[in-house]
Amino acid sequence: xxxxxxxxxxxxxxxxxxxxxxxxxxxxxxxxxxxxxxxxxxxxxxxxxxxxxxxxxxxxxxxxxxxxxxxxxxxxxxxxxxxxxxxxxxxxxxxxxxxxxxxxxxxxxxxxxxxxxxxxxxxxxxxxxxxxxxxxxxxxxxxxxxxxxxxxxxxxxxxxxxxxxxxxxxxxxxxxxxxxxxxxxxxxxxxxxxxxxxxxxxxxxxxxxxxxxxxxxxxxxxxxxxxxxxxxxxxxxxxxxxxxxxxxxxxxxxxxxxxxxxxxxxxxxxxxxxxxxxxxxxxxxxxxxxxxxxxxxxxxxxxxxxxxxxxxxxxxxxxxxxxxxxxxxxxxxxxxxxxxxxxxxxxxxxxxxxxxxxxxxxxxxxxxxxxxxxxxxxxxxxxxxxxxxxxxxxxxxxxxxxxxxxxxxxxxxxxxxxxxxxxxxxxxxxxxxxxxxxxxxxxxxxxxxxxxxxxxxxxxxxxxxxxxxxxxxxxxxxxxxxxxxxxxxxxxxxxxxxxxxxxxxxxxxxxxxxxxxxxxxxxxxxxxxxxxxxxxxxxxxxxxxxxxxxxxxxxxxxxxxxxxxxxxxxxxxxxxxxxxxxxxxxxxxxxxxxxxxxxxxxxxxxxxxxxxxxxxxxxxxxxxxxxxxxxxxxxxxxxxxxxxxxxxxxxxxxxxxxxxxxxxxxxxxxxxxxxxxxxxx
Length: 681
Ligand SMILES: Cc1ncc(C[n+]2csc(CCOP(=O)(O)OP(=O)(O)O)c2C)c(N)n1
Ligand SMILES: [Mg+2]
Description:
Rossmann fold; seven-stranded parallel beta sheet; single chain; 27 helices
């Protein structure tokens, strides 16, 4: 660090400091000032990585700040989302729709510059990051989507899909188990367009990394099949950084990891290379001393030299890049009109108008069929209509019925295929599915056993937070799966997933509800849907006798009406227990108890209905309500009320045949009747 006594504006204006260094120091000081003003945030990493950010946004990346959604832009993911001021400073200086006031509003209510980057809030932010490791996995999905689209749509000299995904990784990102899934999959697939930079600063919150970590990162990633370059201690050397990025751009068959030794809190006399620089404002005095070290006017705050704004503004270049691409796309359209049309449909996820009519119906004559099996049949019909639907399972494709029959395996060299073999990697499966949607041009589904949503919950939560329409296909949904036993039998899962805001959890009761569930999931564009499906066969309900399965779209509907004007009680059920509730209704009728059966496959959809509809399903005066669902009763009070009760499971399941489990856990007519009688008296 070169010490300088000059610390007034004359120094900045004199032209003594090269524009590159001025730009880097602007990123640094903006980050320090914003964190200080917010009195919270993470200054140290933006200070250290300012040269890298400068090099990426000013020289290496292809983007158009005037149109952040230009399809062929490079994607940048700040996996270590806590360093958000690095991203905001870079986006502001390169000309995105972010003002200096937005920077000053860092971390404030309703600002464009939240504590951690949030997708759709800030132009140029490609994904929401903060939980370490997630951004890495999203980036893998983006690169997978790019490879898929490039393989399908690029023709002759028309590389209409041709861009890189850059991901910035911190020690935390690399330590998280998620990084193993991400790196292993990316290496296996040979995602050459994925370029990750590891911020090797040897500091985390609790101190130096040697407290908890001594991996040989180069060896680890080489083992995964990556190209690894250890740049060493050159974090101030933009030429070397630029060269390594260019080398990485020219590697097409392997993802790249650039390991860059950096110094957190760079330039801070007291805090450089200490964890103190990680997550707290430096303090006014330390900022003054640090600015002196940068030869920066030490008393000035949020100083942005005109020359830097001019130098870093990428608008003209960005517009030119996009224009060139539009011209390329126009020529492509005249040579390959059908492909161009399909490309546009795919990137806008344009579901055909008549799609709902194409969803299959299952006649009662088909006999009993598991909802997972029905799902597989529906999926294959849908896949014909929506060729940009891709997806797969975490090594349970046959059990999840998640194979698209007329397509092959998505793999190195055959990225055009639609069946993704995620391997036993539920977490990256879900997070990369989000990444694929964020990239655009594909609509992914992700499948595993319902109990193993636990392995992917952080990614499912983020897809909900971002409002991404991933479709989760979760089979083996209860004790009904049988002999595999309690490790595999979901109990609290329905409740815990229903607790995630914006996630639609749908548990259909038969094959026809399953078909409607798929339709509802496909049509939803502003958030994820989880289909919760049985392993075991379920009867197909005769819709000439019972209400139409279309009721699923309302979240809950009267599937089997009471006799006469008003019921004595309401049985509310979902999935495999609905048929049982209907059987109980018959027996109760013989005993002179007149009940209504409500199929309630999706709480979230039902909540969004008008009050009048909700009251028509659950009339306020009918307080005798019993829910029947093979899972925790947590949350059911919302529907059964204080007079109601729940036939549910409050322990773990058991290893036994599914039918026996149901019997033993009280999912039988006699228990339903006795529980109902208790609340009727
Ligand atoms: C999954 C997860 N666990 C914990 C945290 C809290 N946290 C934020 S940053 C961080 C580690 C900081 O070290 P590093 O990732 O190396 O970032 P640096 O301080 O070097 O910028 C932790 C534990 C988190 N954001 N996400
Ligand atoms: Mg670190």
